[in-house]
Amino acid sequence: MRNKAQIIASVPLTNALLPQSHMNDLRIDLTHGAKGTAFITDSSFDGHPALVVLDLATGRQRRVLENTVSILPDPGYQTVLDGRVLHYDPAHPTFPAGGADGITLSAGSERVYYAPLASRRLYSLPTDKLADFSLSSAQLAALVVDEGEKGAADGLATDPWNRIYTTAADHDAVFRRNPDGTFELLASDPRFVWPDGIFADHQAVYVVLGQWNRLPRLHNGQDLRKPPFLVARIPITAP
After folding, report:
1. How far apart are CA 197 and CA 108, in angstroms?
2. Mean pLDDT computed over every residue of the chain
3. Which of 200, 170, 203, 210 is nearest to 27 (CA)?
4. Rg (CA), the chain
5. Structure confidence at residue 45 (pLDDT)
């Protein structure tokens, strides 16, 4: 029998929320804080992205790393979607593009990995430092590690063997980053239109195929999304 889901905390975002915030992905680190610590990406398409740190027991929360390289979109970012070469232009958006978006924890929650949406870089921080409210954003920024390129990822996920899965909208694909930093193509299919939310367990990777690059606001009001709207399951095995 499966265990029933339980609510462990209900904490509203208050001072960590800005008027144009776009709270996106989140991961719960159960190794820090009495009830755990939530790390949330605020993609903030108006140009104020950040990581949000939230203590689930106390409700204490704050924004960190605003206006730092690892959080901001790459000004020269370029991608290819549906056969069109597109450039990052916040004034005239033609595809989903923003700051910090995908986020995942290492298998043991020692590190948090994250990436801006309009960037091909992957960054990481030790979770004990990110969960420490006494450290300033400047101190945290000095601890950020640039883990190298990871493709044009939206969602990120980690399996029990510490392999990180990255979505790749410009390849209609999902990649896998191995613990040694090497990458491999896990799956590719024309139906993988803007793979987004992603989760991995011992047996499979599950990914939502969002078609977000076909939204009306990116095509002069024309909705180019087409059913069926899919969630893909990709089998995996232990290394």
Report:
1. 21
2. 94
3. 200
4. 18
5. 81
